[in-house]
C-alpha cells in the first residue's frame, strides 16, 4: 500500500476528536518544515500552524495537502507522527492491517506442532505396524531358523494384530516350516 492510500485510510482516525493535540500537530508541522527533505515551505507551515483556524480544520487541510503532494510527503508525515506521537502511530488502523499476518504465509511455530497433533495412539499404531512387518520379514527369510519362536510370538499377539491377520501369518509360517 502506498503512503497516500494509507493516509487516506487513516484520515478519519487522525481527525477524530482528541487524537492529536495542538502541540503535537505543531511539532509535526515544524518537523516537516525544518527537517531534510523539506516537505512544507515556510508559508505552508505558517498556514497549518495558524492558531485562528480550528485544530480539526488545520489537520484536515494538512493531510489533504500532503496527499496532493505525493507518496514521499505522506511517508515523511508518518515518520514525523511516529517521532512525535508514537502511541498514536502504533494505534493507526493502517498499522493494524500491516501487523496482521498473511493468511497464505506458513507459520513455522504452528507447523512444528501440526506434525505431532495425532497423539501417542497414532505413534503406537505406526510403531506396532513397523515392528510387525520387520518381524514378519525376519521370519520369512529362508536363511533364518526362528520359525518356531516366531510362531509362539504370533500366537500370543491377538491384541497387536487382528485375528484374521494372525491366522494368515500362522498359515504362512506353517507352510514355510513344511518346505
Condensed summary:
With 179 residues, the chain is mainly alpha-helical. Helices cover 71% and strands 0% of the residues.
Radius of gyration: 37 Å
Report the uncertain regions: 106-114
SSE run:
HHHHHHHHHHH
Mean pLDDT: 78
Helix content: over 70%
Distance between the termini: 77 Å
Organism: Prunella fulvescens (Brown accentor)
Membrane topology: Single-pass membrane protein
Subunit structure: Associates with BCL10 by CARD-CARD interaction.
GO biological process, one term: regulation of apoptotic process
Characterise the protein shown here.
With 179 residues, the chain is mainly α. It has a domain at 3-98: Death Domain, Fas (Orthogonal Bundle). 71% of the residues lie in helices and 0% in strands. It contains 11 helices and no strands. It has helices spanning 3-15, 22-34, 42-48, 55-69, 71-84, 86-90, 93-99, 108-114, 120-140, 147-155, 163-178. Helix 1 packs antiparallel against helix 4, helix 2 packs across helix 5 (71-84) and helix 10 (147-155) runs antiparallel to helix 11. It is rod-shaped. The termini are far apart. The relative contact order is 0.09. The model is unreliable at 106-114 (pLDDT under 50). Residues 38-96 form the CARD domain. Keywords: Disulfide bond, Endoplasmic reticulum, Membrane, Mitochondrion, Transmembrane, Transmembrane helix. One of its GO terms (cellular component) is mitochondrial membrane. It is found in: Endoplasmic reticulum membrane; Mitochondrion membrane. Pfam families: CARD.
